[in-house]
Every structure is written in structure tokens, then in C-alpha cells.
Design goal:
With 178 residues, the protein is of the alpha/beta class. Helices cover 55% and strands 11% of the residues. It contains seven helices and four strands, in the order E-H-E-H-H-E-H-H-E-H-H. It starts with 5 loop residues before the first strand and ends with a helix. 37% of the residues are buried.
Length: 178
């Protein structure tokens, strides 16, 4: 059996990841590919539990390094329970956020040294790298306006100031250029 494909979508708040994931998933289904659609943080029971902690802001007082470690703990569970089994069985995986978000949010915007994030990535992600990453770009002011229009409570990252979101955008653009 051939290994499945792993596609990730990245970008700042309100960049349009969810609508594009829906469109891609619908298109894949139309050609006979039933993708596993998932998200980070989350996508498995353990990772969903950590999602509440991370997006609710309970991890913020522990600092950006601890927060990054928790994101990688969630990613480890997600990889073990959802992504790797799906890929091994030949399924395609479409994921809303992955390691590039950690590089942007905890790295560029949170100040965690890139060597720390690369080490965590080497340990947790190992060889399970996306086959394709799509980075969506939108000016932070527009993205935050879109995020607020969703009508759900603001999460810990959406509540950050404009300068934080500008650093995110710069990092995502640098990742895309690389």
C-alpha cells in the first residue's frame, strides 16, 4: 500500500485556512480521495485536551518555552494517534496548522529561540513532514477583523496585540520564502 499524502495549511488569524481546507477536502472527495481533516492543536483526544489549556490561556503564565513544549506534546499525540496511522494506511491528511505555526507563534512572536524549536521538531515530528504546506497571507488588521466576525469567543492568540500579529505575518512570509 502506498503512503498517503500530508498537506498542511498555515497562516495568521483569519487568513482563510478553514474555508480553503473545506474546498480542498471537497475537491479530493470528488476525485475519490477521502482525506482525514484535522487541526492543531488538537486532532486526537490527548491533543484536544491540551488545546483547551493552550487556547484558553492557562499555559501563558508559564512562558513561551513551556507553551511551545505543550504544543509539541499535543503534536506528538496527534502524530501518533491520527496522522501517522492515516498516512501508513494510504490516507491523505489535511491539517489546519502544524510545526510552522509553532515557529511563528512561539518562535517569532513569542521569542523562543529557533534552536529550541528545531530540537523539539526533530524529536517529535522526526520524518513525518508535510508533503505540501500552503501558507495563506492576509494583513493582520484584516485577519483579526475576520476572526472577530466568526462570532465565537476570542482565544488566547487572537487577543494578542497588532504587533504580535505583524511578527507572525513576517515569520510566515519568511517561512514561505525559504
Amino acid at each position: 500500500m502506498q503512503r498517503g499524502r500530508f498537506i498542511t495549511f498555515e497562516g495568521g488569524e483569519g487568513a482563510g485556512k478553514s474555508p480553503q481546507i473545506r474546498r480542498l477536502s471537497e475537491r479530493l472527495r470528488a476525485i475519490g480521495i477521502d482525506p482525514v481533516v484535522t487541526r492543531e492543536p488538537g486532532g486526537s483526544p490527548g491533543a484536544e485536551a491540551l488545546r483547551e489549556l493552550l487556547l484558553g490561556g492557562a499555559a501563558k503564565p508559564f512562558g513561551p518555552v513551556a507553551e511551545a513544549a505543550l504544543f509539541y506534546a499535543a503534536r506528538d499525540d496527534h502524530l501518533e494517534e491520527t496522522i501517522r496511522p492515516a498516512l501508513a494506511s494510504g490516507r491523505w491528511v489535511v491539517c489546519d496548522r502544524f510545526s510552522d505555526s509553532t515557529r511563528a507563534y512561539q518562535g517569532a512572536a513569542g521569542g523562543v529561540d529557533d534552536t529550541v524549536l528545531r530540537a523539539l521538531d526533530r524529536i517529535v515530528v522526526a520524518k513525518t513532514r508535510p508533503d505540501l504546506t500552503i501558507i495563506l497571507d492576509v494583513p493582520p488588521e484584516e485577519g483579526l477583523k475576520r476572526a472577530q466576525a466568526r462570532g465565537r469567543p476570542t482565544d488566547r492568540f487572537e487577543a494578542e496585540g497588532l504587533a504580535f500579529h505583524e511578527r507572525l505575518r513576517e515569520k510566515f512570509l519568511a517561512i514561505a520564502a525559504r
